[in-house]
Each structure stands twice: as structure tokens, then as C-alpha cells.
Design brief:
Layout lengths: L2 H9 L3 H23 L2 H18 L8 H23 L6 H5 L6 H11 L4 H11 L4 H8 L3 H22 L1
Helix pairs in contact: 1-2, 2-3, 2-4, 3-4, 4-8, 6-9, 7-9, 8-9
Length: about 170
Amino acid sequence: MSLDSLAPRVAKHDKVAFEDLYNKLRQAVYSACLGVVKSHALAEELTQDTFVTVWLQSDKFRGIGYKTWILTIAKNKSLNLLKKRARELSVDFTENDILGSYESDIELSVLIKNALKILDPIERQIVLLRASGVKAKELALYLKMPRGTVSWKHTEAIKKLKKYMEGTE
């Protein structure tokens, strides 16, 4: 039985049709989610959430391409989760938040603070957030920049910092 022919049955809450759909697409949905979130546990949760949405909203499906419709739901749920996590990041990091572990070495702390001043605000934000463990993918979503641009800006900022630090020794 084709997936498109399951759509009207699932829309009528036919449990057998839904189980068949789940068995046929579970792995594909899981893979789509995993490809975005890079976490097995989150991908599993998103897979379940996707199928709950399919169960509740199958009556909204029109036409052909049921599998594509379902995989789009999975992808969008995954991207929305990443966006939500990016918004939840505390972007109010200051140099003091990152440098707190260096308080015992005041000279190093001052040197690093001065080095950070040579960066423009976006570069400084990228360096500080990356140093605090924020992934480039999440940072790209937050800054609304391509991931490659964030990575490039981070690399260039680190080069500037290294050059500055080498000149102050």
C-alpha cells in the first residue's frame, strides 16, 4: 500500500493505517531529525512528536507527497528546536563571565580583556560564546548568519587575538 493512500485513512484516525505509516517511515523521520539536531535522544523525541503531529493534523494534508509532507514536519520541528535553544542561550555574556576562572591571575585577565577590545562587537560575541561552549550551528541561528560565516568570523577573530597576544609578550 502506498503512503499517499494511507493519508485519508490516517486522517480518519485509522489506527492500523497509522501503525503501518509509522513502521514504514519511523526510520526516515528519525534520520531527518538526527541530521539536524545531531543528538540521538532529541531525534527520538522529535520523531515521536512528528508522528503525534501527523496523527492530529493529517486532515490538513492535500494531494500527493505524504512522505515529503511528514519529513518536512520532522525537519521543521528539528529546526524550531534549534532556534528555541539558540534563543534560550544567555547572550548577555560579558568578558567577566568568561574570564571569571582567571581571577587568580589578574595580569592574564587584563591582557585578555584588552585583547578582546581589538575585536568588533560581533567578533567578540562569537569568540566569547564559542569559548563558553555554544556550537557554531546554534550561534548561526541566533545571529541569523550562515554557519560558514560564523565559523569564518571566529577563525579570523582568533587570528587577530593570537597576533595581538604575540605582540604583547
